[in-house]
């Protein structure tokens, strides 16, 4: 398969291959004529002392040498070009293939797996192809030509040489399968290694926060030790693939020398012929050795080729077969009877029907994990539904040219990736042909033009480290400008502002609201204050549309939305968002504060302290004794538990208005899980020491907390994974 593919590839560049072949033939002719010249030099020039013959031989050799040099240089250039082209073509092919893939592909092939293909496997194939074309081709031709000449000169001796040559390939046959297996194992470990490095870089906060440094170090050490031991065996086998043929050649040379001398003693072979024969045999031997020296490279390339094919054979989930241009959306975008699962059997959306009018501002809200982002992914065709269809007006988007869909939409994510380039390039990446006026218009619409102008280099300011030199609000506004410059008919926002501080969030949302007048906006958000301003709200619950309507309609419904809304109400942020106050009626919603007088609730409310956390902070550490109860005012946290084997398990996600750690108000008991922020968070914290004096005053609170603790212990006994932190 490797040879078939590579030789087809080489044949696709006939001129380069012809140049390489001509170079090989010249080299061959030069080598053999040099060796054969001994026969004439000794028998026709030196022994008879004929100076004229000597001069002819020398001039012929010099001329051939020069021609060989020119052909060699041309062939080297052709090889360099062919090799670089092969590298380029395969790397492009792999890149393009990866671009067409969706989540299943990226779950199967982690970053380490893919990087290894680019940096190890493709270069391995290139090396083997180039070596085969250079020393392999010359050596192969040389062996054939040499054996023919030797056969004509002395057939008995040559038969002996051919028989002996088979010995050279014996080690290959013996070591081949072992070498292939070792190569495969080595690359598997290399993938783990690069994947682990990537994970350790990206997750350094989590690793430090969970004190996983020793665990990670020992994992990497384990991988590196395995690579060390496999590396030793691999190098040893490869060295033997080289050394054993060399040994076989030495033995064969000794036999040829002995038998050739015997023929010379008997007078059936002249001295000149014997020296020429021996010289040609040495060239054949070297060529055979040249071929056997290629074998480790070819074996390695075979493994690499298999690994590369494994990726290239992966069929994309979203196949771009549509041929019709998608007309501009006029009426609606919709999901009809859509079911979708990332993991077979774990349904995220089930028979979902949703129609979003192509006008105004639609918000999609719902609890974490209800499928909001998944709906957006399907509308953008990042994924295709398992059943049902996604349509823009009456067009099934699978039947349309994908680019014509993307042309109509713009998208801003929560973590908008900005590239290491100027602000101008980052915005214009959405529309490379945009002129200065269009660029500034987009930046103005996103409310960032003045800020950019105030930078020393203006639009030419370079964005470093994915936007590290900009504030969160500036990054999101640039991402918004990048989406707007495409003048999209529909703008999709996926939690585009929820990671911003309250003040910036308010101002970016005002900008977004002003955009809704001229285009359709579909926004996934969990912050209901801004969803309330939209024209319609879709409430998702466990992958289904639970409610649909305006804010007022949904509040009157008194259902899921109303509960979510109530949870997020009752917090008063000071101007600038520096501190938060929780209202007494909000506190009364917590089961353990229920029934308390307003005065008592107000007293408790005053005990709460505002705490702010950046993304990736461990608000609560598993195993550490807890002494605070927290309410999340804004932000998103993950409840995670590290198992005894070091595995990190995500148990739940908590958002605005949700709480954790109430048992700590009663006892200083170890936390059963950690709470890690997923976005910047503002929390209200109530410490046990502050709250304790009130417990005697309000026995109902103590009873409710005791009951809560009991429930939690029962849960733990039945191994229920949900914890309150
Ligand atoms: N790539 C993935 N592979 C497997 N499961 C996934 C993947 N992406 C999402 N899920 C799961 O699909 C479900 C819905 O996820 P989705 O992101 O759509 O929810 P969401 O409502 O947007 O949640 P959030 O508000 O937390 O972002 C969740 O249970 C989630 O764990």
Care to describe what's here?
It is a multi-pass membrane protein. It is found in: Cell membrane. Keywords: Activator, ATP-binding, Membrane, Nucleotide-binding, Transmembrane, Transmembrane helix. This is ATP-binding cassette subfamily B protein. The chain crosses the membrane at residues 12-33, 53-73, 127-151, 157-175, 244-262, 274-299. 57% of the residues lie in helices and 15% in strands. The chain has 725 residues and is an alpha+beta fold. The two termini are 56 Å apart. α7 runs parallel beside α10 (271-312). A 6-stranded mixed beta sheet has the order 6-7-8-3-9-10, with helices on both faces. Strands 2-1-4-5 form a 4-stranded antiparallel beta sheet, covered by helices on one side. β11 (571-573) and β12 form a beta hairpin. It has 3 domains: 94-312, Up-down Bundle (ABC transporter transmembrane region fold); 332-567, P-loop containing nucleotide triphosphate hydrolases (Rossmann fold); 575-717, Sandwich (Jelly Rolls), CATH 2.60.120.10. It contains 24 helices and 20 strands. The longest helix has 53 residues, at 213-265. The structure holds adenosine-5'-triphosphate (ATP).
Which helices and strands occur, and which strands form pairs?
Elements: H1 2-11, H2 14-46, H3 51-99, H4 103-108, H5 111-153, H6 155-165, H7 170-202, H8 204-209, H9 213-265, H10 271-312, E1 332-343, E2 346-357, E3 361-366, H11 372-379, E4 387-392, E5 395-396, H12 402-406, E6 409-412, H13 423-428, H14 436-445, H15 449-454, H16 472-484, E7 490-494, H17 502-515, E8 520-524, H18 528-531, E9 536-541, E10 544-549, H19 551-557, H20 560-568, E11 571-573, E12 580-582, H21 584-587, H22 598-607, E13 609-613, E14 618-620, E15 628-634, E16 637-642, E17 648-654, E18 659-660, E19 674-677, E20 681-687, H23 688-697, H24 699-717
Helix pairs in contact: 2-3, 2-5, 2-10, 3-5, 5-6, 5-7, 5-10, 6-9, 7-9, 7-10, 9-10, 14-16
Keywords: Activator, ATP-binding, Membrane, Nucleotide-binding, Transmembrane, Transmembrane helix
GO molecular function, one term: ATP binding
Subcellular location: Cell membrane
């Amino acid at each position: 398969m490797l040879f078939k593919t590579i030789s087809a590839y080489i044949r696709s560049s006939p001129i380069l291959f012809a140049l390489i072949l001509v170079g090989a033939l010249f080299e061959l002719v030069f080598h053999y004529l040099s060796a054969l010249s001994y026969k004439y030099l000794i028998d026709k020039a030196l022994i008879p002392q004929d100076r004229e013959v000597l001069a002819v031989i020398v001039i012929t050799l010099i001329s051939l040498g020069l021609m060989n040099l020119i052909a060699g240089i041309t062939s080297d250039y052709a090889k360099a070009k062919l090799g670089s082209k092969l590298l380029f073509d395969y790397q492009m092919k792999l890149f393009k293939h990866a671009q067409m893939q969706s989540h299943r592909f990226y779950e199967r092939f982690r970053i380490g797996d893919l990087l290894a293909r680019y940096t190890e496997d493709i270069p391995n194939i290139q090396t083997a192809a180039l070596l085969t074309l250079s020393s392999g081709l010359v050596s192969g031709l040389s062996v054939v030509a040499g054996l023919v000449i030797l056969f004509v000169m002395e057939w008995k001796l040559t038969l002996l040489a051919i028989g002996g040559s088979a010995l050279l390939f014996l080690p290959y046959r013996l070591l081949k399968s072992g070498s292939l297996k070792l190569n495969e194992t080595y690359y598997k470990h290399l993938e783990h290694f690069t994947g682990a490095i990537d994970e350790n870089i990206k997750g350094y906060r989590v690793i430090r926060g969970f004190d996983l440094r020793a665990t990670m170090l020992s994992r990497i050490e384990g991988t590196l030790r395995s690579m060390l031991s496999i590396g030793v065996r691999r190098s040893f086998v490869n060295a033997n693939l080289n050394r054993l043929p060399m040994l076989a050649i030495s033995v064969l040379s000794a036999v040829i020398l002995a038998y050739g001398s015997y023929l010379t003693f008997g007078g059936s072979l002249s001295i000149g012929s014997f020296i020429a024969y021996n010289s040609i045999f040495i060239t054949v031997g070297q060529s055979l050795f040249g071929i056997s020296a290629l074998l480790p490279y070819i074996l390695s390339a075979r493994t690499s080729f298999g690994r590369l094919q494994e990726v290239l054979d992966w069929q994309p989930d979203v196949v771009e077969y549509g041929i019709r241009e998608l007309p501009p959306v006029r009426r609606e975008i919709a999901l009809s009877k859509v079911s979708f699962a990332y993991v077979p059997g774990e349904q995220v959306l089930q028979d979902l029907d949703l129609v979003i009018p192509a006008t105004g501002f639609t918000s999609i809200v719902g609890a974490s994990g209800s499928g909001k982002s998944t709906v957006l992914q399907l509308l953008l065709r990042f994924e295709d539904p398992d059943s049902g269809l996604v349509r823009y007006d009456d067009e099934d988007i699978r039947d349309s040219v994908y680019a014509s869909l993307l042309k109509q939409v713009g998208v801003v994510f929560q973590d908008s990736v900005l590239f290491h380039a100027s602000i101008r390039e980052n915005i214009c990446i959405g529309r490379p042909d945009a002129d200065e006026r269009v660029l500034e218009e987009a930046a103005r619409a996103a409310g960032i033009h003045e800020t950019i102008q105030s930078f020393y280099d203006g639009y030419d300011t370079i964005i470093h480290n994915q936007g590290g030199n900009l504030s969160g609000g500036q990054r999101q506004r640039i991402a918004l400008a990048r989406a707007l410059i495409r003048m999209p008919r529909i703008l999709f926002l996926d939690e585009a502002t929820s990671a911003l501080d309250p003040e910036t969030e308010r101002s970016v949302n005002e900008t977004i609201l002003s955009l809704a007048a001229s285009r359709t906006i579909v926004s996934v958000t969990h912050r209901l204050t801004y969803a309330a301003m939209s024209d319609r709200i879709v409430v998702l619950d466990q992958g289904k549309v639970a409610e649909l309507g305006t804010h007022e309609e949904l509040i009157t419904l008194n259902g899921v939305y109303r509960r979510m809304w109530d949870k997020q109400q009752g917090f008063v942020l000071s101007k600038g968002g520096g501190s938060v106050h929780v209202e007494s009626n909000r506190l009364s919603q917590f089961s353990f504060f229920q029934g308390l007088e307003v005065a008592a609730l107000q007293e408790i409310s005053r005990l709460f302290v505002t705490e702010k956390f950046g993304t990736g902070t461990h608000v609560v550490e598993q195993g550490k004794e807890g002494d605070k109860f927290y309410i999340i005012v804004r932000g998103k946290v993950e409840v995670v538990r590290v198992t005894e084997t070091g595995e990190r398990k995500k148990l739940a996600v908590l958002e605005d208005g949700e709480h954790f750690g109430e048992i700590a108000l009663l006892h200083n008991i170890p936390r059963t899980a950690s709470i890690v922020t997923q976005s910047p968070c503002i929390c209200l914290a109530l410490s046990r020491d502050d709250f304790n004096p009130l417990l005697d005053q309000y026995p109902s609170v103590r009873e409710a907390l005791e009951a809560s603790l009991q429930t939690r212990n029962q849960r733990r006994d039945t191994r229920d994974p949900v914890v309150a932190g």
